[in-house]
């Protein structure tokens, strides 16, 4: 038990020491980024001095517009480069998947297609055989069941109605009832 306690205590001490080192490293990186940012701003954005005359203000505005245009061009160029590199990365990752043999399954859509159309799509111009699936099915003849035979023996119900209709039919029914 003492060994276990010592091991866990040592592990916790190492963890806390690593966390302290990580915190100091993060603080150093943040300070370095801030210094780098200040240097970049000082280099690329000189302090603004507003001139007193209207002519000098117009010249300053023209310079600022020219800088804005150049920055927009740079931004556009970097966006295009980023899109190209992303496309290249996608292509390379697809090639990597192909080389490994693990394929990403594309999303499939349901398509109604006959067997002939499917063979034409797969084989192209080589497809010459017509595949009628219904022609290969067996034809099954209906066997007469006992119920159907009984119904045929009874006959058509309409004939019985026609015989019983009118006065003669009613008279027969009345006489048969007695």
UniProtKB/TrEMBL annotation:
It comes from the Eukaryota. Keywords: Acetylation, Actin-binding, Coiled coil, Muscle protein. Residues 23-102 form a coiled coil. One of its GO terms (biological process) is cardiac muscle contraction. Gene3D superfamilies: 1.20.5.350, 6.10.250.180. GO terms for cellular component: troponin complex. It holds the Pfam family Troponin. One of its GO terms (molecular function) is actin binding. Troponin I is the inhibitory subunit of troponin, the thin filament regulatory complex which confers calcium-sensitivity to striated muscle actomyosin ATPase activity. Binds to actin and tropomyosin. Belongs to the troponin I family. This is Troponin I, fast skeletal muscle. It comes from Pycnonotus jocosus (Red-whiskered bulbul).
């Amino acid at each position: 038990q003492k060994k276990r306690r010592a091991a866990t205590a040592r592990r916790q001490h190492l963890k806390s020491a690593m966390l302290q080192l990580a915190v100091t490293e993060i603080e150093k990186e943040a300070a370095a980024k801030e210094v780098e940012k200040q240097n970049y701003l000082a280099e690329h954005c000189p302090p603004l001095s507003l001139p007193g005359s209207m002519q000098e203000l117009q010249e300053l505005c023209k310079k600022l517009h020219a800088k804005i245009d150049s920055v927009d061009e740079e931004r556009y160029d970097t966006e295009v480069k980023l899109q190209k590199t992303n496309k290249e990365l996608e292509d390379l990752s697809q090639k990597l998947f192909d080389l490994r043999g693990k394929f990403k399954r594309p999303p499939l859509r349901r398509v109604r297609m006959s067997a002939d159309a499917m063979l034409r799509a797969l084989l192209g111009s080589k497809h010459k055989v017509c595949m009628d699936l219904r022609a290969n099915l067996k034809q099954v003849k209906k066997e007469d069941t006992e119920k159907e035979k009984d119904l045929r023996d009874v006959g058509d119900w309409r004939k019985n109605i026609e015989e019983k209709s009118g006065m003669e039919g009613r008279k027969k029914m009345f006489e048969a009832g007695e």
